[in-house]
Fold:
Amino acid sequence: MASLSGMVTGANTAFHGALDELSALKDNILGGILSIPVVNTALTAAANILIAVNVLKIIKKLPTKISSLQTELLTIAGAAVGTAAYSKALGSLERSELGKAAIKKGHDIANLAGATREIVNTAEDSVAIARGIARNAPNLIFDAATGEIGEIAQESLLVGEDVESEPELSSTTGLSGYLNPKMMSLRDSKLLRSPAGNDFIVKSWSKHYQTSLDPVKERRAFEALEKFYTIPAGANRAIDTAAGIFKGDNNWTENQLIGYLGPLGKIESNYTTKVAGGGRSERSYWQVQPRTATSLVNDSSALFGSKFNNAFSEYATGDNTAVETMKTWSPSKWSKELLENDTLGASMAAAVVVNRIPSPAT
Structure:
């Protein structure tokens, strides 16, 4: 992860000395920022970034352990597309904790970076740039000291009458942040969706994973993904492992699988339970049916090669590989293992995805 001071330097270059209206920004934006705990808001909204890169004499001491997705994207916007520097920066962001968090929420880092560059190059003034960045990218921040990732308010982007008409900020979990409903709604309505964005996820889930094509369930799924949510640490690790196992199968990339499995768990279980209600048999955050798992290992064995067997080597018995052993499991055995092993649950969900759903790129 690049240091905050390094990101500010890159962002400053990208803006080519914008923000001549410094006094107006101090009155209309900076005052609003300082009314909220500084550690949670410094350099995390696009307007804060604009100030920071131009008034370092005013804000001399910046939190060195806090980094922002929007700032990272702004830094990348300063490099020429197609150069080694641009590609290296993009790859580094995709592999960072912020990048992984954004991908798991259905965002495509390359698309976000491209859109940010377009905003910087075409917006009429600095305020338009700030608002454009806020609409384009989620306001994710990473605290290196605690390892926490959160998404917090962008209320400083609203000035004058907009601020006065704002509802009170509601507190959110993680990093003691703040959520501005109006700005979050505005950003989501304008967000440049990746191919694996909410529309693709919900429609493909309804047809191929949940299989009911029920409009009411689709609407509930959309509503679930539009709300702020976090993915448990164990589920995050499971998603990463599953995506690594099945990357390349049926043209699904690792990042696409990460971007799909994160929202899939939100839709299926809200990340609050691993046991289906009403006595149903589905287990894990991704609500995999034992009969589906049995069918996959028996009828789609090409998906379960050495990567899968290596990842689940603890299930191998004697001369039998993990998959060969799983072929003998009863429904009750599958229920137990899917419930207790997040990585197995995520991996079987990933197997359903790559087996049934055409990749977003096709």
Remarks:
- Confidence is low (pLDDT under 50) at residues 1-63, 154-196.
- The beta strands are 66-68, 140-143, 148-151, 170-171, 178-179.
